[in-house]
Amino acid sequence: MTSDPSTRLGTDERWCPDRFMVIAAHPDDAEFGPSGTAARWIAGGSVGWLVCCTSGDQGGEDPDQDPFELAALREREQDAAAAVIGYAGVSYLHQPDGALSNDLALREMLVREIRTFRPDAVLATDPETLFHGDGGINHTDHRAAGLAAIDAVYPAARNPMAFPSLARAGLAAHVVRRLYLFWTNHPNAWVDITTTLDRKLAALAEHQSQIRDPEGLATRIRSWASEEGAAIGAAAAEALRLVIIDDDPDEAVGPSGNGPAATAGV
Ligand SMILES: [Zn+2]
């Protein structure tokens, strides 16, 4: 999913938000996705919140399994994984797995989450990813969740006249300044996760209902992180598509004391 690291060096992304929100379609998406970034930011002083649009009630292979029991199990696994990463909390929107739709109802739910937690940055799946690179189809829920997250961030969350019942209930409009899209075919920012890769693996291991071969998975995750790290000369990284919605030229220091992003050359 990255560009060829032998021909391109990417931007070593060092900006650190005060508050960030990950919006995911399913339990385990946030761990397979930007959990190394989340753990790094939290270690640097950021406060993170995770929103799961569905509870993964179709994430099994037994047609006789009770989907409500599976959803409850997967929420327990997600809670445990989120605790490993250090999120302040998790919201479950209980939308149907496999049938997630970027409709107004989901957008209002996400605007409610954004206006409640008030993140500087939102991380979500890149909805433009229909296929992963040259192979693999991106799940329809991932695309729907990504689109819904973007549409909630802009313009709805910042527009006081959008979903006016929210503002009347005390949830004032809120400006999200940055979007980081994961599982993207167009990465432009790489976060060094050398120090948090083990935490990512530990969080992934909490999703026991989804993992048949933990050691094989860990090997694959380490390999992918190494490949993505090559873009910035790091041992491990996560590749993201950064969309800066509102830039603040005065901003140079995040809660971790990081300076502005250093460009390694493009
Ligand atoms: Zn998923």
Describe this structure in words.
With 266 residues, this protein is an alpha/beta fold. The chain has one domain (11-246): Rossmann fold (3-Layer(aba) Sandwich). It has helices at residues 29-32, 35-43, 67-85, 104-117, 140-153, 164-168, 197-204, 214-229; strands spanning 11-12, 19-24, 47-54, 89-95, 121-125, 178-182, 189-192, 237-244, 262-263. Helix 3 (67-85) runs antiparallel to helix 7 (197-204) and helix 4 (104-117) packs across helix 5. The site of zinc ion has 5 residues, from loops.
The H-level CATH homologous superfamily, spelled out, is LmbE-like
The SSE string, one letter per element, is EEHHEHEHEHHEEHHEE
The secondary-structure class comes to alpha/beta
Q: Helix segment count? A: 8
Q: Which class in CATH terms?
A: Alpha Beta
Q: If you compute it from the alpha carbons, what radius of gyration comes out, rounded to the nearest whole angstrom?
A: 18 Å
Bound molecules: zinc ion
Order of adjacent strands in the largest pleated sheet: 4-3-2-5-6-8-7
- Provide the residue-averaged pLDDT: 90
* Tally of discrete structural domains: 1
